[in-house]
């Protein structure tokens, strides 16, 4: 097969490309330039997509003996990821930019261009597996090792996209083995640290960065009964479940810490309360997609059992779900068997059955028997 290897400049994508070459595929490496003004050097494990990363990707391709290209996706990245991130926070929601990047950049823009150029598949260094059945249908599953599993951030992929994806690291038991393999292959990125945090906010100061992008004004922090208990410097910089940064002058009557329960951007108000009020029992989701064939109950509107995961490294919780409406915008309804804390509108809810990723939806509402947001 003709395979396009997405080269981030890290050890995972380098080894994934090496395995694709070793498997006998015709491999071409490509690094995505996602910023018009990339930093020259990374700061430890913070940030990505720097000039250093591009150079590391090039050196890996040189070592593997495969062609290397840089594709400029900076305008698309700004529109679909960065601007979307700002707009979601401005609306009082908490987006996941990695999910949006996978959906819009790595497995839409990149994959579409690859197919148009005659490639059969795109290979990445993600830790996940694809199972193909005898009838040609495909399913997305967790990686062999739970600690490195990245199936959550791939939950936005469709069955059509899975048909053109390769995840060569999916069955690898540990990251240590990947680093050891990179060293044996003579790849200079063998001990390069993993990137963390949001790539376009490399210093990790999301609130400070948002303050430069969104017009923020001071406003009240109120308790669940509407009584003002403090003041914030901009409601959009907070997220549900947050504890730090509230700067409340007086303690709660029970002396316990208070957390953000709700963001009301139209009123420029933050609602804070006890941790117990963060227990979520019911979630509704929009922008529903399936990572493989939909379950049969999706068409009939019947309940089906799932495990729900709302963060990349969170434990899934048992739940049941059903799909309401079969129009252009069906809604996912999820009843949780165990409460989840700090669920925020805008987050991504990924559904599992065992190791299989069923699909995902963007959380629109999160309800609790203890507290009902406005």
UniProtKB/TrEMBL annotation:
GO terms for molecular function: ATP binding; tRNA binding; tRNA-uridine 2-sulfurtransferase activity. Residues 209-273 form the tRNA-specific 2-thiouridylase MnmA-like central domain. InterPro entries: MnmA-like (IPR004506), MnmA-like_C (IPR046885), MnmA-like_central (IPR046884), MnmA-like_central_sf (IPR023382), Rossmann-like_a/b/a_fold (IPR014729). One of its GO terms (cellular component) is cytoplasm. Residues 148-150 are annotated as: Interaction with tRNA. ATP binds at residues 6-13, 32, 125. Coiled coil: none annotated. The keyword Transit peptide does not apply. It comes from the Bacteria. Its EC number is 2.8.1.13. It catalyses: S-sulfanyl-L-cysteinyl-[protein] + uridine(34) in tRNA + AH2 + ATP = 2-thiouridine(34) in tRNA + L-cysteinyl-[protein] + A + AMP + diphosphate + H(+). The record marks 126, 347 as: Interaction with tRNA. Residues 304-363 form the tRNA-specific 2-thiouridylase MnmA-like C-terminal domain. Its main location: cytoplasm. Keywords: ATP-binding, Cytoplasm, Disulfide bond, Nucleotide-binding, RNA-binding, Transferase, tRNA processing, tRNA-binding. GO terms for biological process: tRNA wobble position uridine thiolation. It is found in: Cytoplasm. The active site is at 101 (nucleophile), 199 (cysteine persulfide intermediate). SUPFAM superfamilies: Adenine nucleotide alpha hydrolases-like. The keyword tRNA-binding applies. Catalyzes the 2-thiolation of uridine at the wobble position (U34) of tRNA, leading to the formation of s(2)U34. PANTHER family: MITOCHONDRIAL TRNA-SPECIFIC 2-THIOURIDYLASE 1, TRNA 5-METHYLAMINOMETHYL-2-THIOURIDYLATE -METHYLTRANSFERASE. Belongs to the MnmA/TRMU family. This is tRNA-specific 2-thiouridylase MnmA. The gene is mnmA.
């Amino acid at each position: 097969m003709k395979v396009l290897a997405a080269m981030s400049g890290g050890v995972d994508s380098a080894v994934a490309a090496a395995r694709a070459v070793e498997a006998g595929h015709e491999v071409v490496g490509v690094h995505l330039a996602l910023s018009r003004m990339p930093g020259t050097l990374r700061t430890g494990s913070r940030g990505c997509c720097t000039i250093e990363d591009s150079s590391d990707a090039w050196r890996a391709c040189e070592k593997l003996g495969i062609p290397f290209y840089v594709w400029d996706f900076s305008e698309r990245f700004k529109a679909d990821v960065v601007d979307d991130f700002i707009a979601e926070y401005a609306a009082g929601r908490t987006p996941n930019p990695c999910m949006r990047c996978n959906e819009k950049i790595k497995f839409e823009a990149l994959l579409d261009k690859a197919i148009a150029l005659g490639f059969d598949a795109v290979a990445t260094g993600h830790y996940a597996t694809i199972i193909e059945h005898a009838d040609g249908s495909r399913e997305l599953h967790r990686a062999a090792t739970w600690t490195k599993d990245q199936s959550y951030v791939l939950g936005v992929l469709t069955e059509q996209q899975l048909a053109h994806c390769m995840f060569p690291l999916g069955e690898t038991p540990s990251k240590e083995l990947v680093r050891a393999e990179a060293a044996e292959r003579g790849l200079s990125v063998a001990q390069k640290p993993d990137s963390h945090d949001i790539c376009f906010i490399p210093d990790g100061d999301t609130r400070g960065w948002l303050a430069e992008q969104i017009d923020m004004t001071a406003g009240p922090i109120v308790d669940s009964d509407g009584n003002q208990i403090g003041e914030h410097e901009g409601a959009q910089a907070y997220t549900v479940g947050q504890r730090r940064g509230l700067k409340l002058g007086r303690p709660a009557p029970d002396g316990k810490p208070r957390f953000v329960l709700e963001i009301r951007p139209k009123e420029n108000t933050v609602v804070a309360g006890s941790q117990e009020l963060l227990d979520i029992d019911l979630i509704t989701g929009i922008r529903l997609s399936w990572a493989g064939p939909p379950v049969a109950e999706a068409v009939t509107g019947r309940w089906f059992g799932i495990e729900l995961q709302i963060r990349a490294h969170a434990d899934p919780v048992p739940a049941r779900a059903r799909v309401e409406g079969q129009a252009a915008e069906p809604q996912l309804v999820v009843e949780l068997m165990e409460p989840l804390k700090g669920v925020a509108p805008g987050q991504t809810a990924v559904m599992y059955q065992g190791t299989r990723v069923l699909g995902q939806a963007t959380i629109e509402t999160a309800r609790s028997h203890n507290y009902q947001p406005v």
